[in-house]
Design a protein that fits this description.
The chain is an alpha/beta fold. The protein is built from seven helices and five strands. The protein is globular, with a radius of gyration of 16 Å.
């Protein structure tokens, strides 16, 4: 799909695709493409274009989206590299019509290790995390040092809004990291990343 080079039209097109895609298995490809395109608009550059359905661990595991960090990453992306040994933004996309269970959330963490692509991952869902999945999210950080940030439609919309306004959408990821480190429930994200 050819996207407009006009930022307002691009924003409108991307956010409409998010809103118009129904939750559930039948729409997972359409949803993953919409998520990919919003994150690409927001983060490429400075990140490199994403690889879809990327393989790791000698092909044993598949990751929905892998956005490699540039070798000269700075700001928030350098922070991810230093703090979470990240070599890419790893994104797991779950177009479920129900809340993500703790088991599904924990399953997304199997891709994370300092010897792999790092210990930071974004899990994008259509629903809030269940209370048990929220506990799992904090526990994964506290006990296993794996940072899984959770995004929903409204977060992607907010990222696109920040991008359109000339800001840095990485500030929303920064807010998610702070929530997890503090062990707090989701709150309104700031729009600035560290060093901005």
């Amino acid at each position: 799909m050819a996207e407009s080079s006009n930022p307002r039209e691009r924003h409108r097109s991307l956010t409409r695709r998010l809103a118009d895609t129904s939750a559930g298995y039948r729409s997972w490809r359409k949803w993953q493409a919409a998520v990919r395109d919003v994150l690409t608009w927001c983060f490429v550059p400075p990140l490199l274009p994403p690889e879809e359905e990327g393989r790791i661990d000698r092909g044993r595991h598949r990751i929905d989206l892998i956005f490699p960090l540039s070798h000269d990453a700075s700001g928030f992306w350098d922070y991810l590299r230093r703090e979470y040994q990240s070599h890419a933004l790893i994104v797991e996309v779950k177009n479920l019509s129900e809340a993500v269970s703790p088991g599904e959330f924990f399953g997304a963490s199997k891709y994370l290790a300092p010897t792999k692509l790092g210990v930071f991952e974004v899990v994008v869902t259509r629903q809030e995390l269940s209370p048990h999945a929220l506990e799992q999210q904090v526990s994964l950080w506290r006990d296993d040092h794996k940072m899984l940030a959770h995004l929903m439609d409204r977060d992607l919309q907010a990222m696109a809004d920040v991008k359109l306004g000339g800001g840095d959408p990485a500030g929303i990821l920064w807010a998610k990291i702070l929530q997890i480190r503090r062990g707090l429930p989701p709150a309104r994200p700031p729009t600035r990343a560290p060093g901005q």
